[in-house]
Structure of Putative N-acetylmannosamine-6-phosphate 2-epimerase:
Amino acid sequence: MNPVLAALRGRLVVSCQAYPGEPMRDPDTMCRVALAVAAGGAAGIRAQGLDDLRRIRAALDLPLIGLWKDGDGEVFITPTLDHAVAVAETGADIVALDATRRPRPDGRTLAETVRAVHERTGRLVMADVSTYEEGVAAADAGADVVGTTLAGYTPYSRTGPGPDLDLVARLSRDLPVPVIAEGRVHTVDQAAEAVRAGAHAVVVGTAITHPTSITRWFETAVSGASA
Ligand SMILES: CC(=O)N[C@H](C=O)[C@@H](O)[C@H](O)[C@H](O)COP(=O)(O)O
């Protein structure tokens, strides 16, 4: 197995992202968040945007999963080959991209995109999928690792309050490549369950690095209890 993927086996990856307009949307801030989660034992970092990725790459030696959210179309996670190459050029070890069945804005197929990323950059590709069928297709297309990142975020995929552990289990059982559980892992129990379901690694974002959401969870509980 590729050493980057081997380093993530059975480990936690923390997604460090802030959204447009938010107070923490700043590369230096995200880099400090990445350093903080590394101190807690994160085995890898997932981050968004070329500036954040460059800053984090310069500061940390952990495996880095990079993506670039761009555009206002349905496919916005590293939507084109040009985006993927730019992400690779930041030094990210793994390029994460939308691998749903939806058309890509540059008209390339997933297989063409994966092949070109491999040929041009030598980086690994993480396919962010929303369904079992998309996971199978992504592995067929040459993706090095498949993530359940988009489960619940396409109109045709199942959604629930927590991670889709059934999807994690089925993909982990059937795919020839490692499967990363990602999306709505909000508790330590869910993270452990994902590994028991067969996940190669678990990505947690919001529950560790998005204080606005975490605050809202606590505030809702406190207000509800006092009502
Ligand atoms: C759907 C989408 O755009 N997901 C993004 C992908 O990078 C991020 O916004 C998520 O925070 C990340 O996947 C981690 O998931 P969670 O924050 O639920 O732990």
Q: What stands out?
A: Residues 3-226 form a domain with the TIM Barrel fold (CATH 3.20.20.70). The mean pLDDT is 97. The pocket of N-acetylmannosamine-6-phosphate is lined by residues 15, 17, 67, 77, 149-150, 153, 182-185, 203-207 (CB under 6 Å).
